[in-house]
Each structure stands twice: as structure tokens, then as C-alpha cells.
Amino acid sequence: MAATAGIAVANVYYSQPILQAIAQHFDITTEKAGSISVLSQIGYGIGLFLLTPVGDMIERKKLILYLQIGLIASLLLIGFAPNLSVLYAGSLLIGVFAVVAQVILPMAASLVQEHRGKVVGQIFTGLLIGILVARVFSGFVTNWLGWQYVYILSSGLVMATALLMQADFPTVPTRFTGTYFGLLRSTVAQLGRFSPLRKAALTGMLAFGTLSAFWVTLTFYLSGAPFHYAPSQIGLFGLLAAAGALVAPVFGKLADKGTPHRSLLFSTSLTLVSIIALKLFPGTIIAIWITVILLDIGVQATQVTNIAIIYSLDHTANSRINTVYMTSYFVGGALGAFFAIQLYDAGGWAWSTTFMALLSITAIVNVATMQPIKKPLAI
Q1: Superfamily assignment of 2-368 in CATH?
Q2: 224 phi and psi, to 5 degrees?
Q3: DSSP 316
Q4: How far apart are CA 246 and CA 235, in angstroms?
Q5: Residue 118 — φ and ψ, nearest 5°?
Q6: Cα radius of gyration (the chain)
Q7: Cα end-to-end distance, the chain, whole Å
Q8: What is the pTM of this model?
Q9: Which residues contact 204 (CB under 8 A, 6 or more apart)?
Q10: pLDDT in tens, 283-297
């Protein structure tokens, strides 16, 4: 499950280190190239809202297969894109079908009765490794073969996991018996049912907005003076983010022990500290290294803790609750990337990092006003 989820979600992040190479290939501006990442995030949000709730309605194993078939087709579309319009369409569709990972997460949560935070942390580690490897993989493949082969090779990886999935994945009974539109109405209704879900959704939106803003603008920052890094060099920065993958299960266990509020205060504060390092030492590569490590730990720890919280609310509606949270999460990512690109074009690295700092501060304030959860999360 962790491998399948990681390979699927990686497709949303392949473009980040290679935006400059794509811009040069199509002879487009930085802003137009940055739209590729934004469209993938928007597509992910669309897929989350329209497709992942179906996991409560039809058998999840079957739904995952359908999504993987769509993802393979989208990857081949972008790999052979003849013009910018097709490239944009492929980027959007990749996001839509890459929500395979968000069907697997609630599926895994529904298979266990205890230590749910730990199990979710393990699956989420697979997601993080997928994100991590995506940036390194796309940078090196672009240098050696060209950016198109990133997507062509990825289609083969998705096909391999689709075949393995049919042999190994368990069958999980469905719980929702109404219509599709009734399912969507029920999904929206989850936001009104639970105050912790609303708080977690806003925290996740702000945290992922900060992370997306950083990675999208970092590509252009490192491609220009004084660094002039190649895509493979930029991709290597993803290796530093491995720390986030290592700590995810730790924060999952803390949530199981009933200390999610404390964990969220720590993780959101860590995110702000990482951005302050960029502001205090602009143009310093060591400061960027520190930021990559701390920012990834902070955002991923926030994510795992939030997921452990929301999966304790109503296990019969895990897919719908997950949809509300993750849609908010990726809408935040899309908006963070979009506004960061505009600010980078207008005022450079200084403006975009100030924007990141403001998002982080808002996240801390939101967490500080949460009602602390004093007892272990009920499963």
C-alpha cells in the first residue's frame, strides 16, 4: 500500500525541479511554466472531492485500479505533449488520477482497530518517499534523457503497481448505500459535523501552501544567479527532505498517545523557524539546506498528526472525512504555489519567502486556538 501510494503521488511533484527545462523546451515564461505545478495541485483537489469519496460507496480495490488506468493515460499524454495546451491538460489530469494515494490511506485506516496513527504514519511514509524520490528522479532523468521520459517511465511504474495491487490488496466492504450526489452532499456535511476537522483542514491548507510555495519558487531561484543549478542538482535537494519521511511514524504514535495538540504546536512552529532561516541568511546555500530539512519535517509532522485526528472522528465515513481534509490541503498547495509565483515575479525571493512566513504564522495561530485533546483518540 505504501509503495503504490508513493508511486502514484510522485507524479504530482515530478515537474517541480524541471520547470526551467520545460520552459526552455516550449519557449515560455517562468509564470507559464509554474502553472504546470499549479494545475497538478488543482487537479488533485478536483480528484479528491469528486473521486475519493467513492471509496465509501464502491469497493476500494476496484476504484484504485480505475484511477491507475486514468493516471497511466494522463502520463503518456503529457510525455508526448506536442504543445502547451496538451501539456496543461495532462498536468491537470495527472493530479485528478493521482488521488490513488488518498483512497489507500482511509482503506488502511479501516483495516485496523488500534494503533491507527502508527499504521497511517507507515502508509504516509510511503507517500513522503514518493514525493522525495520524485524530485530526484525527475531531475536526473531530465538531465540524461529529457523531461518527457520522466512521465513515460512513470507510466510503466504505475502499471507495475496496478498489476501487483490486483494480486495483493485486500477487499474492503463498502458502507455508503445512497447515490453519488448524496455521497457528495454527505462529504460536504462532514465539515459541519466536526470542529476538529475544520481546524485540521485549515492547518493543513496553510502548511502545504507554505511547502508548495517554497518548492515552486526554489526551482527558479536555484536556476538563476548566483547558483545556476541544473535540474539534477535541484532534484537532489529532495534527498534532504528524507527527514520528513523518517519522523512521520513518530508523530503518528504521539497522536495515538493523545498528544496531537502539542505535536501540532511543535510542527507548525518548526515550519516558521525554517522560513526565518531563509530570511536571516538570504543567498546562503546552507540556510536553504536547513530550511528544506526543517520545513519538510514540520509540514509532514503536521500532516500525519492531522490525519490521525480526523480518522478518529467516524470510521464509517473515513473516505468522506479524508476528502474534506485533503481537498483543503491541496487547494492550499495550489493557492500557495500560485501566489508565490506571482510574488516571485514581482519581488523575487524576498517577497515569496515573506509570503511563506505569513502562512506559517497563521497556521500557528490557528493551532493555538484549537481545543486541546486531552484524552487518547477514540477509535
Answers
A1: MFS general substrate transporter like domains (1.20.1250.20)
A2: -100, -170
A3: G
A4: 19
A5: -65, -45
A6: 19
A7: 21
A8: 0.74
A9: 302, 303, 306, 325, 326, 328, 329, 332
A10: 888 999 889 888 988
